[in-house]
Amino acid sequence: xxxxxxxxxxxxxxxxxxxxxxxxxxxxxxxxxxxxxxxxxxxxxxxxxxxxxxxxxxxxxxxxxxxxxxxxxxxxxxxxxxxxxxxxxxxxxxxxxxxxxxxxxxxxxxxxxxxxxxxxxxxxxxxxxxxxxxxxxxxxxxxxxxxxxxxxxxxxxxxxxxxxxxxxxxxxxxxxxxxxxxxxxxxxxxxxxxxxxxxxxxxxxxxxxxxxxxxxxxxxxxxxxxxxxxxxxxxxxxxxxxxxxxxxxxxxxxxxxxxx
Length: 260
Hints:
Oligomer: single chain
Number of helices: 7
Helix content: 25-40%
Radius of gyration: 19 Å
Distance between the termini: 51 Å
């Protein structure tokens, strides 16, 4: 059976070529749904013969489904532009594609790489997500943030790694930081969740203690300290943006601040 790699992108020129190189050997088709890149994303995608489709941002779940629906093969590998297929996982995917391994839906092990270092602690690695499946096996839900793949098929586990290059540099982190905290605040607002001063103050403290101490993030060295500190700040800023939406009549749309 053929396999389509289905991806969503927005300004991914820094990492996209490495990602596409990692799937080039086994992908029969690469489908990229882009929400308006202004860098070299399209140029790099077309270098690999990808089908490149523009789609105004719909949210993570619907954007992923757009990429899947635009794919022509039975097998789908749904990955992000900052994810790299490890050599061991590549071999396993080829065996699945060739019918040597049973299953229609597979959850894959994720190992995070932040600031050039694999993070083994702090809750950033050894998490599993469904990314390989038959096209008919299910769909992502319509969540704007924290989307999930829904299926009634048996889910099998692949222990081989997807390397998630979460943040290349600290500058890269804070570029994404603004977008993700906005999306998180908007998601909470749509769900009617209200912010509180206690959440803004204590959630970040709990986040840091959980990542750095309870989940042994300190064993990842200075990178572990940095990511735990930045994640705590992420929690604070997300709730503060939610507070702004309610207090000042400010809302966010397409990453632009507007007055309501």
